[in-house]
Amino acid sequence: MLSSDILSAWSPRILSILRIMSGLLFLQHGTAKYLSVPAMPNFANLQATSPSGIAGMIELAAGVLLVLGLFTRPAAFISSGTMAAAYFIAHAPRNFYPILNAGELAALYCFVFFYLIFAGGGSWSLDAMLRKKS
């Protein structure tokens, strides 16, 4: 069994892995909307000023920042708010339960990003590298 000291020692690195993976998955939404990678038919006529278009811009920019761990807290703050808005605008009106309104992903993103606001980017981040240099 792993001791709590070993688990605690790895905590900053695992935080970085959580940030990187959630950032990559979030970024994928932005690339699908604006770069057609992967191509998704429902984003073919996306308007940049529509709520989905604005969310796509945030997903692209914040996704890159989160993957790199650069300006992690502000990127996570904006991303968490975006996902909260997406949940309440697009999902909650359909049904109270996230499993029935297809809002589980938006809710999960919202809370993972909310956690990153407080936890930061972890040890494997550009934020950590910049802190060490100053």
Describe what this molecule looks like in 3D:
By secondary structure, this protein is mostly helical. It has one domain (4-133). Helix content is 72%, strand content 0%. The protein contains six helices and no strands. The chain has helices spanning 4-34, 51-68, 72-91, 98-101, 104-119, 126-133. The N and C termini lie far apart (39 Å). The model has no long low-confidence stretch (mean pLDDT 96).
Summarize the structure.
With about 130 residues, this protein is an all-alpha fold. Helices cover about 70% and strands about 0% of the residues.
β-strand number: 0
Largest sheet report = none
Helix content: over 70%
Termini separation comes to 39 Å
DSSP helix count?
A: 6
- Mean pLDDT across every amino acid position: 96
Q: Strand-residue fraction?
A: under 5%
Stretches with pLDDT under 50, minimum 5 residues: none
The H-and-E topology, N to C, reads as HHHHHH
Q: Using the CA coordinates, give the radius of gyration.
A: 16 Å
**What is the number of domains?**
1
Shape: globular
Give the quaternary arrangement of the chains: single chain
Provide key terms for this protein.
134 residues; single chain; 6 helices; 72% helix; globular; mainly alpha
Walk me through the topology:
Blueprint lengths: L3 H31 L16 H18 L3 H20 L6 H4 L2 H16 L6 H8 L1
Helix pairs in contact: 1-2, 1-5, 2-3, 3-5
